[in-house]
């Protein structure tokens, strides 16, 4: 091979490396039966993923990432912002326990700290506006004191509603008026300290929020009419949204700040638009863009991207929608939902060495009276402590009959309770079966055996276990209401139950 051939081979190798390094995954841990950390790390490595974003300093995840060679963006939940803003000493303690310790003792490659998570979301009504910037400053001061400021950069993951456009075109972009001064101060601070801006962009949510939104415009290969902004035509909402941010930054004097897309993806259940086909279409289109080095009209170099998410989380709050528990490319146990071709050309590989509870399920007993007056309370109880979101309209299990709906709820609770004795009684309405009741795409799960999990090393200064959103009570209450309808009007129970869980 001549020198020119060698040069282009090296150049191509660098391109492949950079494109692979441009992709990471969000690893959420709000699951009743989390996949063991060592298995998740092996899953990441088997799939060539060398970047991961954590939403909190989860001890099991961090210890498993030790000496893995995987770069970590470590998140700080919003409920920690006020304590961190109160005094720099709290930030120093947090950094010591959750950053310094895991870097020095366990060899975790922490590259950045994400202070808060979408703290300026309009729905928060300004709750975190007073604490975010001060917390950011204190965390940076703590990183400097720990001697980690060169290695560990800072950022604030922002929802794309921190900027807007009055004209409806990207070129009209600017920071939201109520937080414009704050956003300018934060952006300048990030630049001054070598940090970067992180933005979460969800085309799915555009479609979910507006029934008149052109569906094809949410995808990269759609045929929707483009949005024309001067000499630029935008054929998909991601490019238009991202360039609205670029215009916003340029107008405020920040044309060169690095940008990371902290979350982007498509869910597979919990809504009529959340399904495997749509998720595969969207995520493959995104990965193909990264592989080809395609940016946007305003920034032709593609940003670093963290796909949301890696694994389903059955304990996430469903306040935004039932789809919140179904963003994973993998099911909760690391099995593949749908195949994707990754940025380095390889295809998804499932998790290995996963240990399960026995293959048995809890279902409505064959002799059970579906008119039993205790049934409503039983289902309500089950869906309070377990995930019933797949029963919703347009979801994978919305085609079950009345008995199937009840069985699904009973089994979800039984598995969440680790198949414990007494977890499948429900006033003698339920029985345990060894015949899988799954039907088509509707999976009746058998959970991971969490007794096989390794004990986590270390631990955070403050645990978010008591403050993280758990089961959303509105789901359980709506199921109770529907089961009352089931008892009083059996012929209409199926449609009522579907409507209630939505």
UniProtKB/TrEMBL annotation:
Residues 1-22 form the signal peptide. Its EC number is 3.2.1.39. It is a lipid-anchor; GPI-anchor. Keywords: Cell membrane, Disulfide bond, Glycoprotein, Glycosidase, GPI-anchor, Hydrolase, Lipoprotein, Membrane, Plant defense, Signal. GO terms for cellular component: plasma membrane; side of membrane. It catalyses: Hydrolysis of (1->3)-beta-D-glucosidic linkages in (1->3)-beta-D-glucans. Residues 360-444 form the X8 domain. One of its GO terms (biological process) is defense response. PANTHER family: GLUCAN ENDO-1,3-BETA-GLUCOSIDASE BG1-RELATED-RELATED. This is glucan endo-1,3-beta-D-glucosidase. It comes from Acorus calamus. The lineage of its organism: Eukaryota, Viridiplantae, Streptophyta, Embryophyta, Tracheophyta.
């Amino acid at each position: 091979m001549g020198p020119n051939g060698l040069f282009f081979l090296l150049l191509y190798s660098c391109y492949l490396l950079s494109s692979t390094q441009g992709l990471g995954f969000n690893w959420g841990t709000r699951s009743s039966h989390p996949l063991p950390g060592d298995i998740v790390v092996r899953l990441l490595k088997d799939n060539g993923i060398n970047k991961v974003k954590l939403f909190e300093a989860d001890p099991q995840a961090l210890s498993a990432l030790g000496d893995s060679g995987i770069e970590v963006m470590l998140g700080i939940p919003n409920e920690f912002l006020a304590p961190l803003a109160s005094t720099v000493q709290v930030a120093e303690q947090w950094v010591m326990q959750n950053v310094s310790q895991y870097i020095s003792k366990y060899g975790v490659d922490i590259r950045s700290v994400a202070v808060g998570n979408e703290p300026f979301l309009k729905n928060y009504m300004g709750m975190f506006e007073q604490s975010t910037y001060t917390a950011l400053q204190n965390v940076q001061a703590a990183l400097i004191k720990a001697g980690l400021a060169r290695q560990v950069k800072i950022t604030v993951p922002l929802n794309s509603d921190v900027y807007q456009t009055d004209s409806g075109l990207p070129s009209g972009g600017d920071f939201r008026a109520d937080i414009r001064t704050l956003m300018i101060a934060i952006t300048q601070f990030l630049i001054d300290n070598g940090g970067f801006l992180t933005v979460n962009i969800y085309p799915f949510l555009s479609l979910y929020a507006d029934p008149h939104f052109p569906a094809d415009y949410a995808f990269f290969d759609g045929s929707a009419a483009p949005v024309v902004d001067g000499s630029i035509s935008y054929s998909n909402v991601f490019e238009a949204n991202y360039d609205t941010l670029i215009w916003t930054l340029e107008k405020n004097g920040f044309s060169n700040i690095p940008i990371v897309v902290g979350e982007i993806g498509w869910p597979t259940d919990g809504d009529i638009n959340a399904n495997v086909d749509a998720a595969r279409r969207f995520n493959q289109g995104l990965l193909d863009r990264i592989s080809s080095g395609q940016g946007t009209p305003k920034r032709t170099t593609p940003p670093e991207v963290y796909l949301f998410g890696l694994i389903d989380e059955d304990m996430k709050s469903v306040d935004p929608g039932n789809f919140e528990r179904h963003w994973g490319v993998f099911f909760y146990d690391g099995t593949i939902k749908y195949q994707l071709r990754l940025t380095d050309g390889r295809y998804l590989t499932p998790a290995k060495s996963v240990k399960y509870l026995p293959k048995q399920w809890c279902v409505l007993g064959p002799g059970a009276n579906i008119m039993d007056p205790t049934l409503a309370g039983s289902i309500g109880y089950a869906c309070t402590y377990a995930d019933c979101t797949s029963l919703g309209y347009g979801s994978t299990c919305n085609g079950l009959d009345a008995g199937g709906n009840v069985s699904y709820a009973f089994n979800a609770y039984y598995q969440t309770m680790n198949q414990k004795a007494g977890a499948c009684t429900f006033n003698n309405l339920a029985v345990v079966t060894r015949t899988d009741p799954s039907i088509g795409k509707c999976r009746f799960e058998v959970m991971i055996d969490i007794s096989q999990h390794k004990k986590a090393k270390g631990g955070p200064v403050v645990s978010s276990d008591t403050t993280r959103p758990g089961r959303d009570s509105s789901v359980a209450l709506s199921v109770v209401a529907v089961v009352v309808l089931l008892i009083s009007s059996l012929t209409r129970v199926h449609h009522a139950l579907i409507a209630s869980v939505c």
